[in-house]
Amino acid sequence: MATIPLKEVDRVEILTILDNSIDILLPSTDRVKRLPLTQDALERETLVAEHGFSTLVVVSSGNTSESLLFDAGLSKNGLIHNMDVLEINPKELRTIVLSHGHTDHTQGLIGMIKRLGKRKMPLLIHPDAFLKRKVVFPDGHELGLPPPDRSLLMQEGIELMEESGPSYLLDGLVLVTGQIHRSTPFEQGFPIHYAYIGDKWQQDPLIHDDQAVVLNVKNRGLVILTGCGHAGVINTIRHAQELTGIQKIYAIIGGFHLSGRLFEPIIEPTIAVLKGFNPAMVVPAHCTGWKASHALSRELPEAFVPNSVGTRFVL
Prior knowledge:
single chain, alpha/beta, Metallo-beta-lactamase, Chain A, eight-stranded mixed beta sheet, seven-stranded mixed beta sheet, 7 helices, 19% helix, 28% strand, globular
């Protein structure tokens, strides 16, 4: 795979707008800023958590700073509610990136685009994200996963950028991986996941639209931000290294999809390989799961940081 250059940035801030949990008592550090616990914070509108994920990414280079939204959460109004509480103006965003098409990463767009009005907001998305999908459990129970509504997004002024390969954003300071190469023997996808392709339902275990955001922080290395990590967190890291030619991993933040019976067996090999990258910061979120998060805390105690809605990572 030919490498593509990724500019260095002086600073990155990643703010968790939505995640599965919130803990207002977590302490701050130099690089992990929790919401201040003040009387005002307890009396005004509070942040909400949900089974979904969304972050604000702000990159700074020289005297300029630009921002993008990565994912949008599950509920129609959860994203814009938390943006209001965090005093984030959606009209100041340069672009939106969706990690994949699952509902818990896309539905919040509905509430946000109403606030935007008819502004032409670019949205980067893999074409497969628009596939109709479902999960079929062993007992026959089905869970539908409605994709983003293409016609509604376009009607509301969203400018769709459908790309399956890697893309640059924010003047080349941000790389979106596009479809991720699968190289590990143990990250085999989601076997009970289906997509409606052509005129029939077909198994869709690899979820090819899964993609990550990659940044190159000066003197530190790569920061990799995942949504669910359906491609596998190890595959994702290796793909980012292959794309950029940069081997040093500074931080990996986001969903690692290690929750539930199907994925718990790969917690051990995942962590064994992850330790070899020697990241300075590991922040499991969203669908990583309780068992995997505790294993990461135990095996990478210096790097592990618990996430919480409202946390800002200064990298």
